[in-house]
Design a protein that fits this description.
heterotetramer, A: 336 residues, Rossmann fold, 36% helix, B: 323 residues, alpha/beta, five-stranded parallel sheet, two-stranded antiparallel ribbon, 7 strands, 10% strand, globular, binds thiamine diphosphate, binds magnesium ion
Chain lengths: 336, 323, 336, 323
């Protein structure tokens, strides 16, 4: 076991994988930094410090600093993958899927299918998502529901350094396009990381709190808010299962349904607004497949249906909080 | 002309295969036998063949919605393509792609593409891969005069220049994007190539209806790019003989325009003329090829009609490698 | 009453509105056609024939033919709207939100909110969506769930010529950005159209079949499949409510919940794949707000989780059919 | 120099307001009082002011993530902006937008923008609206040397050329996009303007640290565009005095670079020098303005600190006009 920050887990895993497999190639804006300047390369190593030292170790052909051209970045990742490489492309902010969605959705997600299974497309697209920095409406969004809705993409949302390492290795060694979503507010979080070359298979949720009264399902930053709510409720003798989905596509349906079968009560927490969200996706799943077990209406704790506001107070009010999760748990327990 | 007799015969045959493949599709589509949107390459054969005759399977190309010619020139199987267009399970893409998504990655053909302009960034990525391999291989992206207005095309050109990717941007200017004229839609101070030049690329221009012009130009372009000088662009002036899609009324054409381009700008006629004038090939030999090609296309259509149809359970295969 | 095709309803409504209000401006690829050619303007009038005659009537400053640049088209619509005009932009295919999503999602949807309510953005973005033409994976998609998930956008999906006219007028006279989704397979459908200058307010579903046993909810082409199923089931004495949502944002929650309260059984039909879809959105809504009424698990009849295949047989197998809807109805009726 | 004394004083004051607004923000941000991402315009004042002094409220501008200077030059209220940056309910956008989304549509300021390159198409739309109005008004989009690589910027240039929109593309080349150098990221055969030229636009170039150069150049550009000749582009060579965002270590700078540009490329020093040399304005008058501006900024910060905070219920207002 080693202690490590989330951002370092990202960086070290890619670095090790680049050492291990010469086909792994990194590209993105400022992944090197300093190109074409007096200061010279390695000025920054990614604005999230997730590629520091890569350029010095692997050079410009494997660590490709790009202009501000997200469509070209994702498209080039697609071309690299079709040609046999394992690209890891960085979108500085998940919000920039807006300027690159075609290459994600209509290209890399579909190559294998459209081409009759005769190619693989092992492109990993990393992106920093989520609110909490007061970065306002265009730099704070959660986009997992959009990507999860798209067949051909796998969508990964790690919450801990240990999961980052296992899931990122899995992504880098698989043959499918993976959207690797890193929550900005988690980059600085530290955690224990197992030694050794482990991978974590996709589609396996993690139970981070166990209880028999209510099932809480969440991803990313929302997992810790569920845990806080669960811990507070535990003091009152209310027991919650907290499920960290870890990947939203594939989805661990079984873990959700198994828990709901026991608790009969489900609260889904999502940082995105509710309409056509992952929250509704999971609620719908349970309402179809765990119908007989449900003892109360499913509650969804999500962001409201608005863009993300700038001001401190507004962003705070916007985001699902541990308090709102607690309130939802009480509501499902108080039903009838 | 430095082509051997074998090379000349092969080039002619390839162009003729494309021509007859498309002429036959034109007929077949009219009978309602083929579903979906089909864009025929007829008229532009000298570009696809003049470019691809220089390549081998480890060079890559990325194509467009009008992709049959590029596929055939890069060596995709005629039967497999016809079956794909007919939607058969035996098609090159198992009937899942259709006309707009034919690909054969093993042949270096990284896909036709239904999204105008989407191919260019993909080609740059392929070129970056080839650069890393260090074998002097290139990636080529074909774009129309319409596609050259899509943001992705510009981003790709700039990215290629910045990364010195061995990528060649082939612009096929057939003067129309769907129903709109090049004169209207493409803002330039001269032509498409001059735009590419402004991104810092070396550029070439040639008559895209003259196989020899295309072929000779591409020799220079490829030498430049394979030598590690970074990307390059070429603009070919060409013609499409059919409508944008099958069924297009072509109201945008001038009076007699179609007759004129068929008469004066047919790359096959042009080729025959040139090899006859230079006494390189005999008409009878070419006539024999024409016969063989017609038979080949007949056989391909028969095979496609008889080929196995896909099954409902095929819908959910190949979404991922691992599920 | 007049008989009219769906595509003519689109065209005539915009045409009349252009006559009525000089601020209405049309833009898109080939909305004129023939620009810069020997044949001259008006070669096509939109590939769906939804702007035929516009150029001759209103000239190039109000009927703007554009290069193939969807980001610029939507962005220009945004700029026109901010400057006081009422743009109607056409994306030939809904799939092209891939190359223009930023301008839809991060720009026009958010101007009003980000600017503190100090502007309006009356931009209407029309797009042809849906499968049925064997146009394969990049020209057949349903995108309403993606757009519905985005706060700031209104999403309209008319099914009949009469609804086209009322809803499009409402869109053209409102002050919010509207995504106007026209199903390709409906363009040729004829229907009765009321006379007069009527509008249809957003957020009001239409009950197209009434019955007390099961509630069917759908949009677009799927409405007719629900109707076909309902008609067949009616012969066996099974009564279905069929709700055509007409707009997915805003959503007529009341109509759905009222019907489910009576029937206790809900089948949601969606042309898109299920994950994070409108189907899950509505299932989740009912599972939260009509929990006590539900007498059987909610069924979702959707496309499978794959890109859209090309071949006739495959596309047919891919799309929800009236048969599949019938089977789902029987399933909810047979529960326990 | 054809500016009146009044005009000169106003221009100086505007530049100084921007300078002090930003210098003060630099200090305030360091104390952790201000949330979010803030990009300071310090150093580029001559561009914003040299451009906007020609405009009135019915001309439109579209700005970038580095938008404070453009906003102030276009007449946005100093207090309202400061309050917005502090996230107050009294801010120009009620605290919902923040630094990256300041707008004042009534003043013709159509928004800063957090998405690099997103402003250009919006400006073309505004220009098309102004063209339709027929009053000789223009729309201006500001783009950085980084933004000029985004596909939207190219699409916008082409669309403007094709539609002859009265749109001006102002490129502020400050040599860096975040941490990357212009030399690396921007493929050209000469400069950014030469790319714009290849789209068929008339282009200009000038020193962006010299107010008079900017102002005089823009007079020509505006005359050309207001006369109905279609779009135009201008490239200004300029400098940013702070990091990309507040907190940037600026490792990409050369040794002594910041000191040098502050010493040699400061548009305010330059302005003072020029008006002194030409005996147009007295230093004492400018000193007095400096004092007034400092007071104004002090007052703005005080007001912003004291201003009303937004409430949770504000989150859901203004998503739509009608709900
Ligand atoms: C992004 C996108 N926009 C629009 C279309 C519709 N479309 C298909 S082909 C085409 C014209 C392309 O013109 P050009 O690039 O000149 O190629 P050509 O058809 O002449 O071969 C258009 C507008 C599309 N497929 N993708
Ligand atoms: C689409 C997009 N990509 C990347 C970013 C992150 N980003 C913000 S500013 C910036 C650099 C912009 O450089 P330039 O256009 O030269 O403007 P400057 O910062 O120099 O004013 C980048 C990469 C963004 N906001 N939007
Ligand atoms: Mg063309
Ligand atoms: Mg810059």
């Amino acid at each position: 076991m080693t202690k490590m920050m989330y951002r370092d887990a990202v960086r070290s895993t890619i670095f090790e994988e680049m050492q291990r497999n010469e086909n792994v190639v990194v590209l993105g804006e400022d992944v090197v930094g300093g190109m074409g300047t007096a200061g010279g390369p390695e000025a920054i190593g990614g604005i999230w410090s997730t590629s520091t030292g890569f350029y010095d170790a692997f050079g410009p052909d494997r660590v490709i600093d790009t202009p501000i051209s997200e469509s070209a970045i994702v498209g080039a990742a697609g071309g690299l993958a079709l040609a046999g490489k394992r690209p890891v492309a960085e979108l500085m902010f998940a919000d920039f899927i807006g300027v690159s969605l075609d290459q994600i959705w209509n290209q890399i997600a579909k190559f294998r299918y459209m081409f009759g299974g005769k190619t693989t497309c092992p492109a990993v697209i990393r992106m920093a998502y989520g609110a909490g920095f007061n970065a306002a409406a265009q730099h704070s969004q959660s986009v997992h529901h959009i990507l999860t809705s798209m067949p051909g993409l796998k969508v990964v949302m790690p919450t801990t350094p240990a999961d980052v390492r296992g899931l990122l290795r899995e992504a880098l060694r698989g043959d499918d396009p993976v959207m690797f979503l890193e929550h900005k507010m988690l980059y600085g979080v530290e955690g224990e990381v197992p030694d050794g070359d482990y991978t974590i298979p996709f589609g396996h949720a993690k139970l981070t709190r166990a209880g028999e009264d209510v099932t809480l399902v969440a991803t990313g930053l929302m997992v810790s808010r569920c845990e806080a709510a669960a811990d507070a409720l535990a003091e009152e003798g209310i027991g919650c299962d907290v499920l960290d989905l870890r990947t939203t596509s594939p989805l661990d349906e079984e873990a959700i349904l198994d828990s709901v079968e026991v608790t009969g009560r489900l609260v889904v927490v999502d940082e995105a607004p509710q309409r056509c969200s992952l929250a509704t996706d999971i609620a719908a799943l349970a309402s179809e497949k765990a119908f007989a077990s449900l003892r109360a209406p499913i509650q969804m704790v999500t962001a409201p249906h608005s863009p993300i506001p700038f001001a401190l107070e507004l962003e705070q009010a916007y985001l699902p909080s541990a308090d709102k999760v607690q309130a939802a748990v009480r509501k499902v327990l108080d039903w009838r | 002309m430095q082509l051997s007799r074998e090379e000349l015969l092969q080039a002619y045959r390839r162009m003729k295969v494309i021509r007859e493949f498309e002429e036959r599709l034109h007929v077949e589509i009219a009978t309602g036998q083929i579903a979906g949107f089909t864009h025929l390459y007829c008229g532009q054969e000298a570009v696809a063949v003049g470019v691809c005759e220089h390549l081998d399977a480890s060079d890559k190309i990325v194509s467009t919605h009008r992709g049959h010619g590029h596929c055939l020139a890069k060596g995709c199987d005629v039967d497999g393509m016809m079956k794909e267009i007919y939607g058969s399970r035996e098609g090159l893409c198992n009937g899942k792609g259709g006309s707009m998504h034919i690909a054969d990655v093993d042949k270096g053909m990284l896909g036709a593409n239904g999204i105008v302009g989407a191919g260019a960034p993909i080609a740059v990525g392929a070129a970056l891969s080839l650069k890393l391999d260090g074998q002097g291989k290139v990636a080529i992206t074909f774009s129309g005069d319409g596609a050259c207005n899509q943001g992705t095309t510009f981003e790709a050109m700039n990215l290629a220049v910045v990364t010195k990717a061995p990528c060649i941007f082939v612009f096929e200017n057939n003067h129309y994007s769907e129903h709109t004229g090049f004169e209207y839609a493409v803002g330039t101070n001269k032509d498409i190539a001059s735009r590419a030049e402004a991104f810092g690329m070396k550029v070439w221009r040639a008559d895209g209806t003259d196989f020899f012009a295309v072929y000779e130009t591409m020799r220079d372009v490829l030498e430049y790019v394979r030598d590690g000088n970074g990307p390059a662009a070429v603009e070919f002036d060409t013609e499409r003989f059919f409508g944008h899609f099958e069924g297009d009324p072509q109201n945008y054409r001038g009076k007699g325009e179609l007759e004129r381009i068929r008469a004066e700008r047919d790359c096959l006629t042009n080729f025959r003329q040139k090899v006859a004038d230079a006494k390189l090939l005999e008409g009878t030999v070419l006539d024999a090829i024409d016969e063989e090609v017609l038979d080949q296309i007949d056989a391909a259509v028969d095979a496609a009609r008889a080929a196995e149809r896909p099954q409902a359970e095929d819908v959910l295969t190949n979404v991922y490698v691992t599920y």
